[in-house]
Amino acid sequence: MAGLELEDRSIVYLPGVGxxxxxxxxxxxxxxxxxxxxxxxxxxxLDRSQIYRVSDLTENMPYIQLRGRILxxxxxxxxxxxxxxxxxxxxxxxxxxxxxxxLSSVEGRYKxxxxxxxxxxPVVFNHQYNIPHPELDDPEQAGQLxxxxxxxxxxxxxxxxxxxxxxxxQNLQYTLLSSLKWHLDETLSxxxxxxxxxxxxxxxxxxxxxxxxIRHMEEARRRLKFEELFYIQLRMLRTASDRKRxxxxxLFSRVGDYFNTFYKKYLPFELTNAQKxxxxxxxxxxxxxxxxxxxxQGDVGSGKTLVALLLMLLALDNHCQACLMAPTEIxxxxxxxxxxxxxxxxxxxxxxLTGSTRKKxxxxxLPGIASGDIxxxxxxxxxIEDTVNFASLGLAIIDEQHRFGxxxxxxxxxxxxVLPHVLVMTATPIPRTLAMTLYGDLDVSVIDELxxxxxxxxxxxxxxxxxxxxxxxxxxxxxxxxxxxxxxxLIEGSEKLDYKDLEAGFETFKAVFPEYxxxxxxxxxxxxxxxxxxxRFVSGEAQILLATTVIEVGVNVPNASVMVxxxxxxxGLSQLHQLRGxxxxxxxxSYCILISSYKLSSDxxxxxxxxxxxxxGFEIAEADLRLRGHGDLEGTRQSGEGVDLKxxxxxxxxxxxxxxxxxxxxxxxxxxxxxxxxxxxxxxxLSILFKKRIDWAxxx
Length: 700
Ligand code: ADP
Ligand code: MG
What we know:
The protein is α/β, with parallel strands linked by helices. Strands 6-7-4-3-2-5-8 form a 7-stranded mixed beta sheet. It has a 7-stranded parallel beta sheet with strand order 12-13-11-14-15-10-16, with helices on both faces. Strands 17-22-21-18-20-19 form a 6-stranded parallel beta sheet, sandwiched between helices. The protein is globular. Adenosine-5'-diphosphate binds next to helix 13.
């Protein structure tokens, strides 16, 4: 069966599936075609090739198999510690099987003094081995499976209710693979296979589902991880290389009055070396005659806005307009205010355009953009609406958080006759592997230095039982003339409760601090109300600002020196770091106080510990990736085409990723359009994987 057919062949035709199961597979797992099923990989394997002896158990064993009988059952503990313990022996020693859930059904299901095969992961507790929530099988029935590694597939509760469990999926894979007679079209080119020494696709797909031993399983995983990462890189790098070859960029050949006047007369401080370096890198891009597509990474407070402004002035010097797109209205408004303030005294026309810009204003601004009269436009998504037409857009800056995918970025500026230079700025540092995957088509500049004179923010972790001490501390800081943020989580699905917490907090703070002004902002307020509350805080009229994460990005109040984060355990690491970046902007010692409940999972405790011990955004981003995996990283889930990896793991497969990227780069260097015979297969695969034919170059 040819590769293409597998993509097109509906799973409903596979023996054992039928319409009802097909619907479930589609709904629950997104499996539609034969190929989808083949690429639904096991998440773990149980080693049934060996039966271990109790006397041979050691620490750190994976899931293993024992054979023996239950001597007695015993129920121990109370409340949440209540558990059922089965004393189990195989003649070489004894071990406890333990259940914390479903106690009564377990006891009814298994008989004493009967042979069972037990699967589970031994752990040490009270200097003794026990196996929590093991699986028990009748050895006769299990006999047919008792060789090799048994694959386990994730299934949902809904699927399990319809008896579409892991075992069923295993059977379906078997049926499908048998019908293919192991002949699967190769999807990597011969030269790639030769260079990497990877196993063939046929072998990999067969062994990922039915490995005969660990070595085969690992070879299969390696091949499939490589392939997954390789095609993402090939696509990204191809986009970038086509763009560079085919499209000319607007030539920013000179540094003129706008840039120079600002630099000499209005720049309020010396640029850091890192700021100077990234500006040089971008000037080189924009002066090369090619279109710039660059990612600017820099920690919170590293001064990305100022860099953006200088580049926009460079655009004006070359008779072009520039725009800056922010993810939220608040941030756009703040950028607008900051940039107006920087440019006070200079004759530059700057306007703000957002979703809530009034009709009358809009009627003034849109023609101004179209005529070229307005030179810099700052805004939200409103900037890419059809009604917005620039006379001569030379530079578009996207302050990220949107995480536009490669293709989405492509569509942003296509209506311009000449593509503008594009700069993407990330609000938070992201790990290198994630940057390569999300932004692999972009060149990268990094601001790795903070402006001088900043005192690092002191971060403390306190339990919510110690509120009195917290209030005393805040009173002391406000007494010195400082201002305080208090942030509450707002988590999708629990908004109702979250708003309640925020409002209760508001009442408490007003009662505890009657002598001070307390204000509040959240997403449900009208824009005008929000603005008024923000104004009260920014002007210093109010000392305490309570907010949901709407303040996360961008607000700049140098006099605010304390950031209190309520229910800190519910925030992601990069979010916490981003919030902390709101303080420490003035000369005083600043504080970030993470408030959590006493009961924390060990992962959460680790996260809070990392926050307390590190102020470095890149370090924190790497830790976040390690702790949570890329699937959960902020911004990657809603990105539509972000990081949806089936088998590779950005936290642990950095080396494979780098290798895949290097190889893709070398291939494109030699054969940019992938037209030569060995590479034809790569080209075909790209168009299957990324469905529609992409105009590779028309992407910015
Ligand atoms: P971010 O990179 O987080 O967007 P900002 O651009 O908001 O950072 O800069 C943070 C603060 O540092 C702002 O108040 C800005 O004016 C100030 N700043 C930027 N560059 C410098 C510099 N070279 N020296 C001193 N302060 C600077
Ligand atoms: Mg910023």
